[in-house]
């Protein structure tokens, strides 16, 4: 990503957060980051595309991390561990993006909303597939409905943006470890939980 593109995104995040999407013009953005309209339109077709990119950045991150977890680990409990770590870390890496997303997502144009929703659905499908495979292998409690379990995990973690502070008493990885401990204690079978707690991945969470 070019320095100017990153600078435009950073300025827009601050301005959208302070004034709202409709309260900010392209002129406001280019003045804030000390560039020209030509510089802006070289990287973005419109302010609408810029809002889409803000949304897409963090959604693409968690989706890529989920796919990577599937490639790197052949056990559902370890895939889920890595997916949860990345899902929590996104609130530190892209905190401003997520705040703007939750504040301004109603202004996303339909064509961009479709693209974002496709990635969100893809992530949910991967998570649900991991849960289902974990149940088939006896790692995740079979009596838990996969769809409700999926939504419960996402609902729990997605609320992080409401209270997480970068300068808070706990690091993002410590928060991720707490989430994983709570979720795994409820999801895993006794044998799988014991195996996980004895694993190297569990040791990295301490």
UniProtKB/TrEMBL annotation:
Record's keyword annotation contains Membrane: no
Coiled coil: none
Residue ranges for the DNA-binding region feature of this UniProt entry: 25-44
Alphabetically ordered keywords of this record: DNA-binding, Repressor
Pfam families, alphabetized: TetR_C_24 (PF17932), TetR_N (PF00440)
PROSITE patterns cross-referenced by the UniProt entry: HTH_TETR_2
Annotated InterPro entries: Homeodomain-like_sf (IPR009057), HTH-type_Tx_Regulator (IPR050624), HTH_TetR (IPR001647), KstR2_TetR_C (IPR041490), Tet_transcr_reg_TetR-rel_C_sf (IPR036271)
Presence of the UniProt keyword Repressor in the record: yes
GO molecular function, a single term: DNA binding
Domain HTH tetR-type: 2-62
PANTHER family: ACREF/ENVCD OPERON REPRESSOR-RELATED (PTHR43479), ACREF_ENVCD OPERON REPRESSOR-RELATED (PTHR43479:SF11)
The protein's name in its UniProt record: TetR/AcrR family transcriptional regulator
């Amino acid at each position: 990503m070019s320095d100017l593109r990153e600078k435009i995104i950073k300025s827009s995040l601050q301005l959208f957060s302070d004034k709202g999407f409709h309260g900010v013009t392209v002129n406001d953005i280019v003045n804030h980051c000390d560039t020209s309209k030509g510089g802006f339109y070289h990287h973005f077709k419109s302010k609408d595309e810029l809002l889409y990119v803000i949304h897409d950045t963090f959604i693409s991150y968690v989706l890529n991390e989920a796919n990577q977890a599937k490639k790197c680990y052949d056990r559902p409990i370890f895939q889920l561990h890595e997916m949860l770590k990345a899902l929590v870390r996104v609130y530190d890496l892209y905190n401003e993006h997520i705040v703007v997303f939750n504040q301004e997502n109603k202004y996303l144009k339909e064509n961009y909303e479709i693209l974002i929703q496709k990635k969100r659905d893809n992530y949910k499908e991967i998570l649900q597939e991991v849960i289902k495979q974990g149940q088939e292998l006896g790692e995740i409690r079979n009596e838990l409905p996969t769809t409700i379990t999926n939504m419960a995990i996402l609902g729990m973690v997605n609320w992080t943006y409401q209270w997480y502070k970068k300068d808070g008493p706990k690091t993002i990885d410590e928060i991720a470890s707490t989430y994983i401990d709570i979720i795994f204690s409820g999801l895993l079978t006794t044998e799988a939980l014991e195996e996980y707690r004895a694993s190297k991945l569990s040791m990295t969470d301490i």
